[in-house]
Structures are given as C-alpha cells and as structure tokens.
Amino acid sequence: HPERVYSRDQLLDHVWGTNVYVEERTVDVHIRRLRKAIAPLGHDRLVQSVRGAGYRFSRKL
C-alpha cells in the first residue's frame, strides 16, 4: 500500500510472524540493506522513514 506507514512491529509481524522473537532494530538493518540494493537504480528514496512512526513506500521521488 503506497504511502501507508508501517510501524516496526507491523513489519515484523508481516514478515516473520507473531510466533518469532526478533529485535525491532532488525527492521532497520533490513531497510538499510534494501535501500542499498535498489540504490544503483535510483530507487532508494522510495523507501522512506517516517520519524516516530515507521516506514513507508512512496511512489514520489
């Protein structure tokens, strides 16, 4: 869902499920790796941090 903000907890639950204990900061590491992987294409700015809320995918560069 573009422009929708997801908290770290929501992302953890969607990716790893609710029965697994994973540190919240794990999301930050994976977001950083995702941005690095898509940076050569110039799309790293599409994954945006929303301070105090989480992350979102934006169609706007």
Describe the protein's architecture and organization.
The protein is an alpha+beta fold and 61 residues long. It has a single domain (8-57), classed as Orthogonal Bundle (Arc Repressor Mutant, subunit A). The protein is built from two helices and two strands. The protein has helices at 8-16, 25-38; strands at residues 47-50, 54-57. The chain has a two-stranded antiparallel ribbon with strand order 1-2. The longest helix is centred in the middle third of the chain and has 14 residues, at 25-38. The two termini are 16 Å apart.
How would you concisely characterize the structure shown here?
This protein has 61 residues and is of the alpha+beta class.
Element string (H = helix, E = strand): HHEE
Structural class: alpha+beta
Strand order of the largest sheet: 1-2
**How many individual domains?**
1
End-to-end separation in angstroms reads 16 Å
Highest-level CATH class: Mainly Alpha
Number of strands: 2
Low-confidence stretches: none
- Kindly report the name of the CATH homologous superfamily: Winged helix-like DNA-binding domain superfamily/Winged helix DNA-binding domain
Rg on CA atoms, Å: 12 Å
Q: What characteristic shape results from the CA principal axes?
A: globular
Quick one: biggest sheet?
Answer: 2 strands, antiparallel
Strand content: 5-15%
Query: If helices are DSSP runs of H or I spanning 4 or more residues, what is the number of helices?
Result: 2
The second-level CATH architecture is Orthogonal Bundle
CATH topology: Arc Repressor Mutant, subunit A
| Secondary structure: helix percent | 25-40%
